[in-house]
Design brief:
The protein is an alpha/beta fold. The chain folds into 2 domains: about 110 residues, P-loop containing nucleotide triphosphate hydrolases (Rossmann fold, 3-Layer(aba) Sandwich); about 25 residues, no CATH class. It is about 30% helix and about 25% strand. The protein contains 6 helices and 7 strands, in the order H-E-H-E-E-E-H-E-E-E-H-H-H. The strands form 3 sheets. The protein has a 3-stranded parallel beta sheet, with no helix packed on it. Strands 2-3 form a two-stranded antiparallel ribbon. Strands 5-6 form a two-stranded antiparallel sheet. The longest helix has 13 residues.
Length: about 140
Amino acid sequence: MAAALDVRLIDIRAILVDLVDLRGLPTVEHGKAAWATPAFLPDEGAGILFLDELNAAPPLVQAACYQLVLDRSLGEHRLPDGWTVFAAGNREGDRAVTPRMSSALANRFVHLSFEPDLDDWSRWAMGQADLRPEVVAFLR
């Protein structure tokens, strides 16, 4: 989607970050506490901030994302107007790492569910020059 829109994509694996990774490190400026914003958060331009595996992230990381998703900010850092936040995660029924996402965070999103179809995927895969036919045969 980012390539089609010709915008930047920042992919953050929420399950792999710690709260301090998102919030930044505390500093002192003019005798007051401030936060050094992480370098991976955008401060200009347009793009998609993609929070992958958000529902599998530790509860404190999910809580830090409340403000990021709803208010488009994290502490004093504000996402530029051209940025949109997307997230993804497995459903509880997928039998993957799927702790329940808090309702406070879940309510900040529109949820889209996708059901894989092996026949459709196989037709697509057979047209891909860089995908070995053994992969399709294994899945079938």
